Amino acid sequence: MPEDSMEKTYTCTAPVNIAVIKYWGKRDEDLILPINSSLSVTLHQDQLKTTTTVTTSKSFQEDRLWLNGKEEDISHRRLQSCLREIRRLARKRRNDDDLGLDSTCLTHKAHICSINNFPTAAGLASSAAGFACLVFTLAQAFGVEGELSGVARQGSGSACRSMYGGFVQWLMGHQSDGKDSLAQQVEPETHWPELRILVLVASAERKHVGSTSGMQTSVQTSYLLKHRAESVVPGRMVEMIKAVRRKDFPAFAELTMKDSNQFHATCLDTYPPIFYLNNVSHQVINLVHRYNRHYGETRVAYTYDAGPNAVIFTLEQHIPDFIQAVQHIFPPETNGEEFIKGLPVPHADLSEELKRAIALEPMPKGISYIISTKPGPGPCVVNDPTQHLLGPDGLPKNIVRRHSSERDNGVKHTNVS
């Protein structure tokens, strides 16, 4: 690449978040404004993250995007919204108050390369991490500072919550322009050090009904969704924030499970109904309730987004025992190290009393693997240039170049939103 091309490269990472008070349904499809507020826990990037590299250069002829090794159609409406808004904010900063800002990059095209280290579009909030990382990295590249959750929201609603670490609320807002529909950190990731999260991956397959189309149908047909947004969620948000701040696990757990159940009830109330859970999901729900009943207290909670994978919340001291219960009901085909990824889990013996209390039919291979993690920080800048996903030529480093030749031959790929 010529030296006068003014090439600049930035790499950042962003986290997955898991909602404990769910977002489902929009009042404005274009601006992605929700019908209710929501609250989530940001998962640690040591286990789950999106990594994005953005290179801007005078020599680039057009914006281009590679996602998980495949060139995508960058004309997708939500991608364009984020690119357009970041460039608008960059011009505004240049014009308003920072005359010393290098403005040469404002007219440069961008090459973007992004990878997830977890299954995409399988109910693990891949679009949230992806758009949060895109917006945060573009902001570095174009010199944009300040509040960015409103930009990330225009890519994927829940992406605004991935702009912060720890415990995060997304305020639904009331303004028609969406300027008050933003994410706010409730507590940082260090607030509740004993809290642990397990992702029980039952399926890494793409869901049959995507979140965007599912929400649209629910808003149009579900009376339960309207009742939930207007009469249930406002009170739950208040109670959940109290539970988080007090580190009251039983209250946090009960609210989390009830809200997950009601979200999936609205999916069933949708016409035609939407089924995100499968038989393994239902068995995990049974396991959690029987486990808690055995101990006479709420030690474990489940929640499900738009997919079959359970996300389990518990305290660190209960992790070994509960994982043994999971392995008892879902005997893995791999050994312990391959079955449990992420934070190490000490061994524990499963008591005969607990086995009898659970009394569920085993489902071999029902759970593919478990990701053990904890609350974590928001987006981070990667300062090591060897971690850039794009090479000096502005193309992906380790991706077969046939994708570029397909693009040149007119082949386009559908973007995952």
Give a verbal description of the structure:
- With 417 residues, the protein is of the alpha+beta class.
- It is 35% helix and 20% strand.
- The chain has eleven helices and 17 strands.
- The protein has helices spanning 77-96, 126-142, 149-153, 211-221, 223-246, 249-269, 279-295, 319-329, 336-339, 352-358, 402-408; strands spanning 8-15, 17-21, 26-28, 33-34, 38-42, 49-57, 64-67, 70-72, 109-116, 167-170, 183-187, 195-201, 300-303, 310-315, 340-342, 369-373, 380-382.
- A six-stranded mixed beta sheet has the order 8-7-9-6-1-17.
- A hairpin with a 6-residue loop joins strand 13 (300-303) and strand 14.
- Helix 1 packs parallel to helix 2 and helix 5 (223-246) runs antiparallel to helix 6 (249-269).
- The longest helix is centred in the middle third of the chain and has 24 residues, at 223-246.
- It is globular, with a radius of gyration of 22 Å.
- Mean pLDDT is 90; it is low at 400-417.
